[in-house]
Amino acid sequence: MKKIDYHEITGVIHLLSGMRIGGSDDLLTIGGAENTCIKNPITLQPYLPGSSLKGKMRSELEQRLGKIGNGGKPCGCFEPDCLVCTVFGTHANTRHNLGPPRIIVRDCQLTNNSESAIEIKSSTAMNRNTGGPQDGSLRSEERVLGDFTLRIGIQIWDLDSTAEHKNHKEIVQSGPLALVAFVLDGLKLVQRTGLGSGVSKGSGEIEFIDLKLNGQAVPEDLW
Prior knowledge:
Layout: E1 3-15, H1 50-65, H2 83-88, E2 103-105, E3 117-123, E4 139-145, E5 147-157, E6 164-166, E7 172-174, H3 176-193, E8 206-213, E9 216-217
Antiparallel strand pairs: 1-5, 1-8, 2-5, 3-4, 6-7, 8-9
Helix pairs in contact: 1-3
C-alpha cells in the first residue's frame, strides 16, 4: 500500500444565518446566553471544528446512499466499493483492508477580512392552548455570523485506482477523481441543509464560495 497523491479543496464558508456550534458554558455571566458557541481559548474568536463539518458531510452522504449503520450509527460495512468507509473511515471496525481514512478536514477559522458577530437568539416552546410561551421554556443561545476558511485534504493511495462514483449530475467519475467528486458532493449536501444545531429552526444556513481544487477553480462537472 502506497500513498500516491494529495488533493486539497479550499474556499470560504459564508454564513447566511447565525450558526450554532456548541461550546463550554464554564464562563456563564449574569444575563448571558445559556448555550455559548465554541471559541478559541486564547483569542476567544469563534471557529468551526473540522470534526463538525466532517461529521455532517458523512451523515448527509450516508443518508443519501442509504448506508446508515445499525442503531443509527455511522456506516462501518468496510465493503471495498463503499466510498463512505474509504473516505471517512470504517467507524469502530478496525478489521478491514481499505487503508486509512482519505479525508483531512481542517478547523475552519475566521477569514482575514471577516469580523465575527455574536448574536443572542432567544427561543421558547409554545403553549398550544393559549398561543403564548410555555412557562419556564425561555432559552437563549449564542449564534455566530462571519466568513470561515475551508480546507479539506484528500489523500490518494494506490488502492483507489478502481474507485467509482456517480455524482449529482449523473456523471461517473472513476479512480482518484471519484474520491474528490464524492467529497464535493458531501459539501453540496451540507450546503443544501446547513451546519450546526437548530437548522430546522433557521440556524446554520450557509454557502460555499470561491471553491478551488489544488488552487484552481473547481471544474463545472464536479460542482
